[in-house]
Amino acid sequence: MKLDIVLSRAERLFLEKKYKSALSLYAVALSIDSSSVDAKVGAILCDLGFSFKEEAQILYYYFQTIKETSNDPVLSIENLADTLISGSLKNDIYALLDADMAMYDGIEYEDFLNIIEDKENFKEAFEDAIFSTRVIISKKWEFIDFIKKLAENGYYSVALDYLETHAPMYKNDQDILTLYSLLPKGNV
User: What are the boundaries of each domain within the chain?
Assistant: First the structure.
């Protein structure tokens, strides 16, 4: 069986919160390729999902955002899961994510806003920031503001990418879903 097919099926089951079935497929994926980052993290998150259903889903979406840029996404997810299980942050998943994001090189969103103000030009500030660092968005209002600024300045496809990647973390939050209306239909 091909690894990508097994991972795809495991991911679908995981997102349906069928953790036992998903875990079995992640085990198969690991038998195919024991170094698969997606399979390792999937297994960790399934295990976490037995006790922390919603938090496991949130960590999954977080993993999707860091897996290409993190030096060790497996270790990051393991540490977040361990911290969550230990209860040292009173099971506040968003506080955990904020702490983890702070470890990455990047600038806080408020610092990014200061750069925009200094340059007096969103496009120039955005291009400078995107090509030299990452903007760390850790609060809902920051995410909403960022998407609005992207749309106002014609970065529709970037805004759509951010929405597709991060909107699931907010579940069916109407403030977040409304952001899709800022994008032109069919032309992104």
Answer: 3-102, 107-182
